[in-house]
Specification:
The protein is largely without helices or strands and 207 residues long. It is 13% helix and 2% strand.
Length: 207
Amino acid sequence: MSMRKKAFIPLVVIVAAFTGLNAQTLLNSPHDFSGKSWNIMTNTCAVCHTKEEGTKSSLKSTLWDHNYKTTEYKIYQSNTLDAVVGQPTGISKLCLSCHDGTIALNNFGGSIEESRYIKGKALLGTDLSDNHPVSFVYDSHLALVDGELYDPASTESGLGKTIQKDLLVDNQLHCTSCHDVHNMMGNDNLLVKGNKKSSLCLTCHIK
């Protein structure tokens, strides 16, 4: 799945497991919302998560509380792309509930404050054609067909297990494959591992 014909910008994301999170890891990270004027809640987690059953998404494991729209995105395309890439789904879609700029950051928990939208480099918009593709199956078959990807089932991720076990969700690559949304690792740009000399990219890409 070579993407040499187009530069891409890594997606910065917002989601991961709510239960068991040490909120201290979020302090001073891009996802530390505790000091934001638009955050009407008493903790930074409540911007994205709720402890109630009434989640606004089908991904009940994340207890997601932020609204999102059904948005049509312009996605990455290339004649060297072997993966079948469609519209963002699952966890990646939840990330975009803030990062596509169509929903206000403070659209959660019944906020009646003036709408505040994401801006700057974190605003991806609905044109994702210059971003790494997400929500596609990355498996042994794709690695074989592509020829420039490591087999995720047998290749170590550098995080303790294989690419498949550490970085994929149901064999799909999502925003969270590269981004550590709760800053558990403490890397720059909320990455799951450092990217010096493109080491993160080269976890999956042979070249």
